[in-house]
TrEMBL record:
Name of the protein: Lead, cadmium, zinc and mercury transporting ATPase Copper-translocating P-type ATPase
P-type ATPase A domain: residues covered: 1-95
Main EC class the enzyme belongs to: hydrolase
Enzyme Commission number: 3.6.3.3, 3.6.3.4
GO molecular function: ATP binding; ATP hydrolysis activity; copper ion binding; P-type divalent copper transporter activity
Membrane topology (UniProt): Multi-pass membrane protein
Transmembrane segments: 111-133, 139-162
Family that this chain belongs to: Belongs to the cation transport ATPase (P-type) (TC 3.A.3) family. Type IB subfamily.
Organism annotation: hydrothermal vent metagenome
NCBIfam families: ATPase-IB_hvy, ATPase_P-type
Chief location bin: membrane
One GO cellular component term: membrane
Length: 351
């Protein structure tokens, strides 16, 4: 949906032009690359970055075609369309990799360049010898000898095996989310001694989940999750879905909150079942004057484990801390152990 001459209209993605203002609603896929000019939202860019948390977008920020708008509606100005978009460039890179030559293929081509003429000479020599010196029917035997030489010695496999294997390998890798820049990368992979892995979406699932619930001495774990989920029902924060999913997995049905309020940079608050609930970071707890006690130490421990701690206060008193993180894939440990078993050092890179 684009705006042209002050009117909104639906057009095919192929007809979007540079400079068009495009309208994107919640849940829709962004059609082309551009710059946000009106509104704000969070955008799921995991297809490009691997990050599980949606990226917050506001006026002036770039948006990428193929990513998914999660919450708010916005307008953006198209800056790259068609083959110039980031997604199109990735597709082009895969196609170029399939058509590239590995060093060993160049060697095969060089060998074939000498081998083919040699085979042709041998075939012609075979024909002449059988024709001049062979028994009758000489012409048939001469042709049979020449053709047999060409068939047996033809270097078809030498010239076709490498490019075919390369094309299939790059294509299969792309199907599994692995982009290979060129054929040389595949060949040198056999000599690798170190593999560098991104954490998010590679070692981990790529989707945040509720992993820990720590409560104070007077607190109740089920109540803490129920109150947190109730507030997050109305929240657009990227971690809200993780908390709601955590409540569902515990068979907890959250109530509808009243007087809900989102506090930018702090968290959310509202009334749930007659209790004033505050859910957010340390700054929110300081704002309402809640004494964290041992929960502060617990939050540091969770943060050191790579998790995001979220405090909850009930009626002005700190009741617990919950943690959201991106859990490991089930096969990550086995895969890394396998790489180490091959003598390959494994390094993790994370923000």
């Amino acid at each position: 949906r684009v705006v042209r001459n002050g009117k909104e209209m639906d057009i095919p993605i192929e007809e979007v032009l540079v400079g068009d203002k495009v309208i994107v609603r919640p849940g829709e896929k962004i059609p082309v690359d551009g710059v946000l000019v009106e509104g704000r939202s969070s955008v799921d860019e995991s297809m490009l970055t691997g990050e599980p948390l949606p990226a917050e977008k506001q006026e002036g920020d770039e948006v990428i075609g193929g990513t998914i708008n999660k919450t708010g509606a916005f307008k953006f100005k198209a800056t790259k369309v068609g083959k110039d978009t980031a997604l199109a460039q990735i597709i082009k890179m895969v196609q170029e990799a399939q058509g590239s030559k590995a060093p060993i293929q160049k060697l095969a081509d060089t060998v074939s360049g000498y081998f083919v003429p040699a085979v042709m000479v041998i075939a012609v020599t075979s024909f002449v010898l059988w024709y001049d010196l062979g028994p009758e029917p000489r012409i048939i035997l001469a042709l049979l000898g020449a053709v047999t030489t060409l068939i047996v010695a033809c270097p078809c496999a030498l010239g076709l095996a490498t490019p075919t294997s390369l094309m299939i390998g790059v294509g299969k890798a792309a199907e599994n989310g692995i982009l290979i820049r060129n054929g040389e990368a595949i060949q040198v992979a056999s000599a690798l001694d170190t593999v560098v892995l991104d954490k998010t979406g590679t070692i981990t699932i790529g989707k945040p989940a509720l992993t820990d619930v720590i409560v104070t001495g007077e607190g109740n774990e089920k109540d803490v999750v129920r109150f947190a989920a109730a507030l997050e029902k109305n929240s657009e924060h990227p971690l809200a879905e993780a908390i709601l999913q955590g409540a569902r997995s515990r068979d907890i049905v959250p109530s509808d909150p009243e007087d809900f309020k989102a506090i930018p940079g702090h968290g959310v608050e509202g009334i749930v079942d007659g209790h004033r609930i505050n859910l957010g970071n340390r700054k929110l707890m300081d704002r309402i004057g809640a004494d964290l006690g041992l929960l502060e130490k617990d939050s540091h421990t969770l943060a050191d484990e790579g998790k995001t701690p979220i405090f909850i206060a009930i009626d002005g008193k700190a009741a617990g801390v919950i943690a959201v993180s991106d859990p490991l894939k089930e096969d990550s440990i086995e895969a890394i152990r396998g790489l180490k078993g091959l003598g390959v050092d494994v390094v993790m890179i994370t923000g």
